[in-house]
């Protein structure tokens, strides 16, 4: 399926495009909708659609500016613009950016279906003709995405890990047959994490922790993607744990795990360990892959997850129990490290 994103500030137009056009029958699926050009640009960057259908007149950022911004960023989407009968000057300007077509309002489904059929035929013919030449290029792009994911795992930033994993999954999904996708992707993810582990330790048994049965499950695609992200987040946590077995950074980490409920500052911990704060901060960052204060938040959020799973405490009480006097800060940090809100996490559990 080719992915299409719709952008229009009129809800009725979006609804008409969604309901009146036979996207699936022509090999397309709607991956997102936006009501202004700014939101559309962020969705294009995040979702990487094959086709974008956009109105030319929208608030914040109009359709032409959206197309120009995407061209500057070298985003690969093909554009079709929606316009009224009095907007031909916009259409003329849009043609400078190789806009594929324009559809007049009110929408004509026969015209739209014709365009979609042409695009699908053209893209599939191009894909078959270019397959031998693109094979090496695709492998290179996959390796770039894998490097991006391994760097994210090293950073221990869960939001960054999720984003990098999603980009890798989407790239590979477009490159190989559907029937081979999960097995192929599972093996590559496991090999990537295993390689990172071997660089950290010579303990052969440590590899087994990464071989999740969920990687080979028949779950819904969105759920399976979450399994992959969870595996990568677990890899980050395990790598950090291995790095903290010895040395001053390990002593500081142990101090945090014992005293996370208290207000913690790098200077106070350095004083306890008789180490210069600046040196400890640099050593901790180099050893763990995250700053001292981020590690404090990370440990607090891990403990909060346990409390949310195992107790009936209210979220505000959980926040206080793990060292947060400000519930908003607790919610922000929980979202940062788990990619979900405390309330959603509690309900899901």
From TrEMBL:
Listed name of the protein: Response regulator
All copies of domain Response regulatory, residue ranges: 3-120
Organism: Cohnella suwonensis
Keywords: Cytoplasm, DNA-binding, Phosphoprotein, Transcription, Transcription regulation, Two-component regulatory system
Post-translational modification 4-aspartylphosphate, affected residues: 55
Stretches assigned to coiled coil: none
Subcellular location per the Swiss-Prot or TrEMBL entry: Cytoplasm
PROSITE patterns reported in the protein's UniProt record: HTH_ARAC_FAMILY_1 (PS00041), HTH_ARAC_FAMILY_2 (PS01124), RESPONSE_REGULATORY (PS50110)
């Amino acid at each position: 399926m080719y992915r299409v994103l719709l952008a229009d500030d009129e809800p009725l137009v979006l609804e008409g495009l969604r309901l009146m056009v036979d996207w699936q029958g022509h090999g397309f699926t709607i991956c997102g909708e936006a009501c202004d050009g700014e939101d559309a640009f962020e969705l294009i960057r995040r979702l990487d659609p094959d086709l974008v259908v956009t109105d030319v007149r929208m608030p914040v950022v109009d359709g032409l500016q959206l197309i120009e911004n995407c061209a500057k960023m070298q985003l690969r989407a093909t554009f079709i613009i929606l316009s009224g009968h009095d907007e031909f000057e916009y259409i003329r300007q849009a043609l400078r950016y190789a806009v594929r077509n324009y559809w007049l309002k009110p929408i004509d489904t026969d015209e739209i279906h014709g365009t979609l059929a042409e695009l699908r035929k053209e893209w599939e013919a191009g894909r078959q003709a270019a397959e031998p030449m693109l094979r090496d290029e695709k492998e290179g792009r996959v390796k770039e995405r894998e490097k991006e994911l391994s760097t994210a795992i090293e950073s221990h930033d869960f939001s960054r890990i999720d984003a990098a994993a999603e980009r890798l999954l989407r790239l590979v999904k477009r490159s190989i047959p559907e029937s081979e996708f999960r097995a192929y992707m599972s093996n590559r993810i496991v090999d990537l994490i295993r390689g990172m582990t071997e660089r950290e330790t010579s303990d052969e048994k440590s590899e087994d922790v990464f071989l999740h049965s969920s990687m080979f499950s028949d779950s819904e695609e969105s759920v399976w993607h979450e399994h992959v992200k969870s595996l990568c987040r677990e890899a980050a946590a395990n790598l950090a744990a291995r790095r903290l077995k010895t040395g001053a950074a390990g002593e500081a980490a142990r101090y945090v795990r014992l005293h996370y409920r208290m207000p913690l500052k790098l200077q106070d911990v350095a004083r306890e360990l008789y180490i210069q704060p600046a040196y400890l901060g640099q050593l901790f960052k180099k050893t763990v892959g995250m700053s001292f204060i981020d590690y404090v938040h990370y440990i607090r959020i891990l403990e909060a997850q346990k409390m949310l799973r195992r107790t009936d405490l209210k979220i505000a009480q959980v926040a206080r129990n793990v060292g947060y006097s400000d519930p908003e800060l607790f919610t922000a940090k929980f979202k940062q490290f788990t990619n979900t809100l405390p309330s959603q996490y509690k309900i899901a559990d």
